[in-house]
TrEMBL record:
Residues 156-216 form the GFO/IDH/MocA-like oxidoreductase domain. Signal peptide: none annotated. InterPro entries: Gfo/Idh/MocA-like_OxRdtase_N (IPR000683), Gfo/Idh/MocA_Oxidoreductases (IPR051450), GFO_IDH_MocA-like_dom (IPR055170), NAD(P)-bd_dom_sf (IPR036291). GO terms for molecular function: nucleotide binding. The lineage of its organism: Bacteria, Pseudomonadati, Bacteroidota, Flavobacteriia, Flavobacteriales. This is Gfo/Idh/MocA family oxidoreductase. It holds the Pfam family GFO_IDH_MocA. Residues 3-118 form the Gfo/Idh/MocA-like oxidoreductase N-terminal domain.
Length: 323
């Protein structure tokens, strides 16, 4: 079992601590949090071992799960890598692309593995259709959330939209060619609602909307590709797959058949992929353990996390340019 330590014992950090303790892939050694009052409270309430310094924790572990505020990701990661420890970094990977690239260089030099916590990759609804997403040419995403003061210190693009940016980049096998974006500061001092259009070299277009001032929560993505429409509800963990095929000469009386202007007939049919419920955070952590133990590539690499951040930061720049 890998000896694991957690940096950060806030809301998400406590979830990670609990899951690492439950996992049969890790031996949870303990945690560090700079807020001593909070750290002692967490240690007393849950029984996790509290380390008074990062260095003390690093001496005892094989990997660290960095769940601190994004501003401190870089410093925490560098300390861990320099001591030869594998790193799991919550999203976004760091606060700047330059910091992220520096981490990649250092991790490569030290021979340690890193994974970024883009947890929607492990959403059971998305996982159930991954094999069906073949060269989508139009993608539309909506990630809407009711207002919550936690997270409003960063633009909604880095808080919410980055999830969909990562999903799209993992699906579209092409480079980004152009981005158009706009957004509005409504309650916060940074954009609370934003829309972006990402164009790719292969002709694919993705239209993304994110809001943290909505009246209801929504996390939906729609993928359109030749002869197929795939809808993924990340919140409700549901999928819808609508496909088309050449209509048979004598279709069933209940078959849904469409005929275009050229007289070509297509039959519409539905697929219902099985969605196997899971704990996405536990799965991403254990996938990282598998990569370490088997010396394989982590499912969400530092490079992929960096590209998601690069695109997100460009969207933020374009939004701020208009405001």
């Amino acid at each position: 079992m890998l000896k694991a330590g957690v940096l950060g014992a806030g809301h998400l950090g406590k979830i990670h601590l609990k899951l690492l303790q439950l996992s049969d892939q890790y031996d949870l050694v303990g945690f560090f949090d700079p807020d001593e009052t909070n750290a002692k409270k967490v240690a007393a309430e849950f029984g996790y071992k509290y380390f008074s310094t990062i260095d003390a924790l690093l001496e005892e572990v094989d990997m660290v799960d960095i769940v601190t505020p994004t501003l401190s990701h870089y410093d925490c990661a560098v300390k861990a890598i320099e001591k030869g420890k594998h790193i799991f970094l919550e999203k976004p990977i760091t606060k700047t692309v330059e910091e992220a690239r520096s981490i990649i260089e250092l991790a490569t030099a030290k021979g340690v593995k890193g994974q970024v916590g883009h947890v929607e990759r492990f959403n059971p609804a998305f996982m159930s259709v991954m094999g069906k997403l073949e060269n989508p040419m139009f993608i539309e995403t909506h990630r809407l959330a009711e207002f919550n003061p936690r997270g409003t210190d960063v633009p909604v693009v880095l808080d919410l939209m980055i999830h969909d940016i990562d999903i799209i980049l993992s699906v579209v096998r092409s480079k980004v060619s152009n981005i158009v974006a706009s957004g509005v500061d409504v309650i916060s001092n940074s954009p609370d609602i934003a829309n972006a259009r990402i164009e790719f070299e292969n002709g694919c277009v993705a239209n993304l909307t994110a809001s943290r001032i909505s009246l209801k929560n929504m996390r939906k993505s729609r993928f359109f590709q030749r002869d197929a429409y795939i809808s993924v509800d990340f919140l409700e963990k549901k999928v819808e797959v609508v496909k088309m095929k050449d209509a048979p000469e004598n279709p069933d009386e209940y078959a849904l058949v469409l005929q275009n202007a050229e007289g070509i007939k297509k039959q519409i049919y539905f697929e219902n992929p099985k969605v196997t419920q899971n704990n996405a955070i536990l799965d991403e952590l254990e996938a990282f353990a598998h990569a370490i133990n088997n010396n394989t590539t982590p499912p969400v690499t530092l490079e992929q996390g960096t590209e998601a951040l690069r695109v997100a930061m460009e969207i933020v720049r374009l939004v701020e340019q208009k405001n």
